[in-house]
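Q: Given only this backbone (326 positions), what sequence would you predict?
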């Protein structure tokens, strides 16, 4: 069987198995199945003892190199299964953290910053004895991966960005809403609203294998602890809004590759804009080439007709391009 076909099949199996996810999901995803065993690293932040979840997947035939995967804001490590499989098949060790505030990691009331999250990821690498890694970041994870590369260039083999948000500075055109206002919005989340958002923003054509993403992203709203989850989501929204990285692309000292679904039109805070303003922004077909030009040793890999999550929407194309550009 062709390896990429087998990888796509692996993705489908993971997706279908997740249909059995319960109707109510805990805010630390305790009852959500991940593609590989999850471990926890104790961390301290803002005087609180917390824990950071991660997967550490080692290949059967190691090539001596490591890749770290950073998830997007609305996801956790659970959606990286096919990417992990493709990389380990090629001999890479793969580290997949759930960032603090996301996935199976602690939902702490702290000041969230990309600097802080980058430092925690360096701590994870140091704890695991990993001196250098490729860093692949999707969506919000792309902003974090960029900050990580700016702070710790000596740790980064290559920066790999999959439809990162933050290619433009949202606070220059999106009206400000503080964490308290955003919290009220987050509290309104339901499985139905999550699916509607995913359908309109992530996938131009809905497929049954995407439903597991909605089950995880939406069913957490049924938890008795959902207000805490919503408050943390509001705090991390504020982090994205207030901490742009787009002005620093020219300062990157590591090679970078942008893997971009060119039909993406993601804007953080899009609902706060008029249709006329929405049309002016979030145009990845324009933003991505401009960003690639700003980055020294930057390279753009476009995926035409693809939106925000190429590794799920167009896995064969994405994984082929990823492996060719490692």
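A: Predicted residues:
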């Amino acid at each position: 069987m062709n390896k990429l076909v087998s990888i796509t099949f692996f993705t489908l199996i993971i997706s279908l198995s997740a249909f059995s996810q319960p109707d109510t999901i805990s805010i630390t995803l305790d009852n959500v199945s991940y593609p590989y065993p999850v471990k926890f690293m104790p961390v301290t932040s803002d005087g609180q003892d917390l824990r950071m979840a991660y997967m550490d997947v080692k290949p059967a035939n190691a090539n001596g190199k490591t890749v770290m995967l950073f998830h997007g804001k609305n996801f956790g490590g659970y959606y990286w299964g096919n990417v992990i499989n493709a990389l380990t098949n090629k001999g890479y060790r793969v580290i997949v953290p759930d960032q603090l505030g996301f996935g199976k990691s602690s939902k702490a009331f702290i000041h969230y910053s990309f600097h802080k999250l980058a430092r925690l990821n360096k701590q994870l690498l140091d704890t695991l004895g990993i001196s250098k890694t490729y860093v692949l970041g999707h969506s919000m994870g792309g902003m974090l991966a960029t900050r990580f590369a700016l702070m710790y260039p000596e740790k980064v083999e290559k920066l790999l960005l999959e439809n990162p948000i933050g290619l433009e500075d949202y606070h220059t055109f999106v009206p400000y809403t503080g964490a308290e206002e955003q919290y009220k919005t987050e509290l309104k989340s339901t499985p139905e609203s999550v699916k509607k958002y995913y359908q309109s923003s992530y996938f131009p054509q809905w497929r049954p294998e995407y439903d597991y993403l909605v089950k995880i992203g939406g069913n957490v709203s049924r938890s008795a602890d959902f207000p805490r989850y919503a408050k943390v989501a509001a705090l991390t929204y504020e982090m994205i809004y207030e901490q742009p990285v787009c002005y620093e692309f020219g300062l990157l000292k590591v090679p970078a590759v942008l893997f971009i679904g060119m039909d993406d039109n993601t804007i953080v805070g899009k609902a706060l804009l008029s249709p006329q303003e929405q049309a002016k922004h979030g145009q990845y077909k324009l933003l991505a080439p401009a960003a690639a030009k700003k980055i020294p040793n930057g390279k753009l890999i476009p995926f035409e007709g693809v939106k925000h999550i190429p590794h799920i929407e167009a896995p064969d194309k994405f994984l082929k391009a990823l492996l060719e550009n490692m």
